[in-house]
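STRUCTURE:
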């Protein structure tokens, strides 16, 4: 993994349905919020609120959608699931790390996507799943 040296310093966001608190660590090895829910070897975060909103809205489970403000505790790299496949140049500022993310706060107010946008995203993810493509490696 190549540490990022030319990226903004944050703020960084992580969207989920997990009920966590300030100071808690988001670690690799837990079940993914997406797809087959297999244990992940990475933790994911973004430098845009928009990317974190998608993460929260698409996360598995019935818990409240949450967006945490996080800080990486170690080196990280651009998320190849997005930067190599969907958004060259990483406009969503999406990253991953094998080291934990420390929660330093929560975004209390944010606006989610419209029902139509959510439906379109779910349909797109269903098409990928039917093709055998996992949303996150």
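SEQUENCE:
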């Amino acid at each position: 993994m190549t540490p990022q040296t030319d990226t903004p310093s944050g703020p960084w966001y992580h969207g989920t349905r997990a009920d966590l608190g300030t100071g808690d660590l988001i670690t690799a090895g837990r079940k993914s919020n997406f797809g087959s829910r297999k244990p992940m070897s990475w933790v994911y975060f973004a430098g845009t609120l928009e990317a974190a909103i998608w993460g929260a809205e698409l996360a598995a489970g019935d818990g409240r959608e949450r967006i945490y403000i996080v800080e990486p505790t170690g080196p990280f790299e651009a998320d190849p699931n997005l930067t190599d496949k969907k958004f060259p140049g990483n406009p969503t500022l999406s990253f991953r790390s094998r080291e934990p993310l420390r929660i330093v706060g929560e975004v209390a107010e944010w606006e989610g996507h419209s029902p139509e946008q959510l439906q379109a995203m779910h349909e797109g993810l269903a098409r990928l799943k039917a093709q055998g493509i996992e949303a996150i490696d």
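REMARK: Helices lie at 49-58, 80-83, 115-130.
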